[in-house]
Design a protein that fits this description.
This protein is α+β, with helices and mostly antiparallel strands. It is built from seven helices and five strands; from the N terminus they run H-H-H-H-H-E-E-E-E-E-H-H. Among the domains are: about 40 residues; about 90 residues, no CATH class. The chain has a five-stranded antiparallel β-sheet with strand order 4-3-2-1-5, covered by helices on one side. A hairpin with a 7-residue loop joins strand 3 and strand 4.
Length: about 230
């Protein structure tokens, strides 16, 4: 008869206390990826609802497996048609006639709607900036003293700051919140007040999402040091 080893129960409790959070940090990204994939597949499968009931394969096909495969092919077809339509619209927008048509709609329709014109203008400027820079504006990670002196935060440099009355050598930086980096604060900081982190964007996001637990192991050359001007 097997005996129950009660002396192992404290070890199990210690295992849960010591490694549960680490395991959660490992499992959570996989769960998020699976959730996004499931949501994408669900949205893709929902495209079949655009087909009238009388035209759906399960209505006139006796074999449900063949009907399922045909439904899947129709959903994929919708995705291909949508991608082609967006690409065609992008091509038209680059032509002279397409540019004039978009300018006419923006100036005579969108600009006359108070709230919509502000949102449209901000999104248009953001997308044009990302397109012209090839997505390179968001690849420099620095440390800034925020929200007060002596407290450091990770920030992403989005580009140089140019504004009336603003001195030269200032940067636009984005300070994300944790654990949700999609919200944060836009700051204009003097370039002499930031400290290069030598972290990649992926490493910075990993640190923010994990509340600093999954911080990269850095050597002495990558440790944060004050700016030379500030040390004097």
């Amino acid at each position: 008869m097997n005996r129950i080893h009660f002396d192992r129960l404290p070890r199990l409790g210690a295992l849960l206390r010591s490694h549960f959070l680490s395991g959660l940090l490992v499992v959570t990204p996989f769960g998020v990826v699976l959730w996004i994939a499931f949501a994408a597949l669900k949205a893709l499968w929902g495209l079949r609802e655009l087909v009238p009931q009388a035209w759906r394969p399960e209505t006139w096909l006796p074999d449900p497996r063949v009907a399922f495969l045909l439904d899947l092919a129709i959903a994929l077809g919708f995705v291909v048609v949508l991608a082609l339509a967006i690409s065609l619209f992008g091509w038209i927008s680059k032509q002279l006639l397409g540019q004039k048509l978009l300018d006419f709609v923006a100036e005579n329709v969108i600009q006359r709607i108070p709230v919509l014109r502000s949102v449209y203008g901000a999104l248009e400027q953001l997308l044009h900036t990302l397109a012209q820079g090839g997505g390179q504006q968001f690849r420099r990670v620095v440390y800034v003293e925020y929200p007060r002196k002596g407290v450091w935060a990770l920030a992403f440099v989005t580009g140089p700051a140019h504004a009336p009355g603003l001195p030269d050598c200032h940067l636009n930086v984005y300070v994300p919140t944790t654990p949700n980096p999609t919200s944060g604060f836009h700051l204009i900081v003097a370039e002499a007040e930031v400290v290069p982190s030598e972290l990649s964007v992926e490493e910075a996001f990993r640190t923010i999402l994990s509340l600093g637990i999954a911080q990269s192991h850095v050597g002495p050359s990558r440790r944060m040091t004050p700016h030379p001007e500030k040390a004097t």
